[in-house]
Design a protein that fits this description.
The protein is an alpha/beta fold. The chain contains 4 helices and 7 strands, in the order βαβαββαβαββ. α4 links the parallel β5 and β6.
Length: 128
């Protein structure tokens, strides 16, 4: 798995139009916190029980072939690591993780979006 900063990921998407951009956060995060423009939602885990989605790899296989570039993003870059590892185990060969995720790491006040992340870097995003 390769790792890209949010700005590198944005450039990668523009240079690789066949890439699939997957937001692996929960449905509630995707809808209410917002998501990168052009990302599709395939949750790695979701409420109410927050168990790993047993259909995750299958849903990704429906969206892309195993040799197509996949770019994964989550809130801070942790869930996307686990999701990416599962995809590589399933045979996907071009998996990329967005470092710092959509909202970035927590600051000293336990707040996100103030230091790193897709939104912090001013990249395109939308809210449903």
């Amino acid at each position: 798995m390769q790792h890209l900063t949010p700005k590198e990921a944005y450039e990668f998407l523009h240079g690789n139009p066949s890439a699939i951009f997957i937001d692996c956060r929960s449905e509630m995060e995707f809808l209410f916190v917002g998501h990168p423009t052009g990302a599709i939602m395939i949750p790695w885990n979701d409420g109410p029980d927050w168990e790993v989605n047993p259909q995750f790899v299958g849903h990704v296989k429906k969206a892309a072939s195993v040799d197509r570039p996949l770019l994964l993003i989550c809130r801070s870059g942790n869930r996307s690591l686990d999701a990416g590892a599962a995809l590589e185990k399933a045979g996907f060969t071009q998996v990329y993780n967005v470092l710092h995720g959509f909202e970035g790491e927590l600051n000293e006040h336990h707040q996100r979006n103030s230091m790193t992340g897709w939104r912090h870097d001013g990249l395109p995003w939308e809210q449903c």
